[in-house]
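Much of the work behind modern protein science is quiet bookkeeping, done one molecule at a time. The fold becomes a row of whole numbers, each drawn from a learned catalogue of backbone shapes. The protein below has been through that process, and both of its lines are reproduced in full.
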Amino acid sequence: MALNLESIVQDAMSALHDHRDKMLAAKRELDAATASATSKDRMVSATVGPQGQVVSMTFHTKAYQSMAPAELAAVLVSVLNEARADMGGQVIEHIKGFQDFGGHLRSVAGLSGMPADMDALLAPLRAMRPAFDSEEAQAAAKAAKQEEFAAEEETLPGVEQGGKQEEFATEAETRVSSGKQEEFRG
């Protein structure tokens, strides 16, 4: 069966546009959404916006005037947290509809048998290179680089192995700190 690539791309683009439109509608709904909560004693109500910001707070009685500051604070925190939790639930409900868009897009494009994650998608390519992920191959490559570096260092003319490093270490031990930066002559 031959795949019509143009048709697949058009179907996928159509699905993307539909998905984008649904996401924009959900965003508009959430931007306008609020959630409210009232204390158990019906003394205070709070309304929060989609990002948990306080939109309004209403005191229904004057009982708050005789409350201890810590008690009033506890009531306000409780009401605000309840409203924010309700708003969080609304946000989650809106987002749930977009959860498996990748699977939907693969089915629209006729690629429903394709793996969902990148590792599974690349597995056949990795299998073509047997030593790609093996720790032995990585260790061998590292050892080869170290040997290559050591061989280059040995072949440099007029430089003793580690001579400059030892000279600098000896010089650093004999210097006395003067509080000023010293010039390195090496």
In short: The first helix runs from residue 5 to 32. The chain has a mean pLDDT of 75.
